[in-house]
Amino acid sequence: MIGIRTGAAEPPRLRRVVSLGLPTMWGAAAVTYKFVCPLARQDTLEARIITSAVFFAVGSGLVLHVRSTLLRELRQLREVAGAAQNALLRPLPPRVDGLTVAAGRLSASRGASVGGDLYEVAATEHGVRVVMGDVRGHGLTALATAAAVLGSFRDAAHEEAELSHVMRKLERALDRHLRERSRAEHPAYGGVVPDSPPAEEFVTVLLMEIGPDGGMTALNCGHPWPHRLSGRAEPVSAREPLPPLGSFPLPAELPLTQLGPLLPGEALVLHTDGMEDARDAAGRFFPLQAALTEAVRVTPVAPRVVIHSVYDRLRRHTGRLPSDDAALLVLRNDRRRVPPQQGETVRRENTMT
What we know:
- With 353 residues, this protein is an alpha+beta fold.
- It has 2 domains: 11-82; 92-333, Phosphatase 2c, domain 1, CATH 3.60.40.10.
- The chain contains 9 helices and 11 strands.
- The protein has a 6-stranded antiparallel sheet. Strands 3-4-5-6-9 form a 5-stranded antiparallel sheet, covered by helices on one side.
- Helix 1 (2-36) runs antiparallel to helix 3.
- It is elongated and about 95 Å long.
- 29% of the residues are buried.
């Protein structure tokens, strides 16, 4: 173990020595030339030109060295940030309790897939539970907030029988995270003024539960409603959601929304508001519903095809990276059969008579 630690520590130490040694050598060479070389003490035009060329070369070398060092550190930070988000938003399994699942995300942080979008799908004894959320802003600060909320969901989804209790655990986890962050950023602890103060932080959260019969129940705190894909794309609800987590305390009673069944072959698309808020050069919003309808013209609905199709159209629409992170989550019901709903049973009886 000692040998492994020594070997792992040598490259960074060597890089530090080189990083400090090269500028020192260039500076020493310039000073030596100025005070030792007889040509540098001459006042002729030729001597001045040569002296200027020497100092220009040394200065250019220092600038290039600093630029190279900064670019290397930036690449390392991006790699670390990307690895952190990949660990947070770990790849979802292709199937969860009879549902085919696919997810994608597009980050507004140029050069790094770091953002505040969060999603997870979990098969529990209470049904398949899904979370989709969006932290205000993007970057490493949003990533830490998303980690707090998502970590809480991964525990509460299995432990809590009621969807409302899951949401309350997410609220408590977010409050705890923001308190700790506020304390760490306080000037008394050596903190600096953040771009997004904890007091202004909030998270939109959509919680869903899909039962064995395909019945869908949702609890929405400030998040866009999903779309159901069944020949075309349609929002599953027009109900006004609750305020986002962090803005106000949750009310004493949390209203659950019944969204009806997700029938075999139908798909559900959850998204963050970065999709609908994306604009083109003329300021027109991205037509998400039309893009989803176009993506499901070919049946059966393939979740991965839907994601690739929508993102391709989004890139063509904006012509650049979106101004906000944009995530998609698609679930298709591949269960062999769903028990008949009450309305369907009545229609069959009327047909037979």
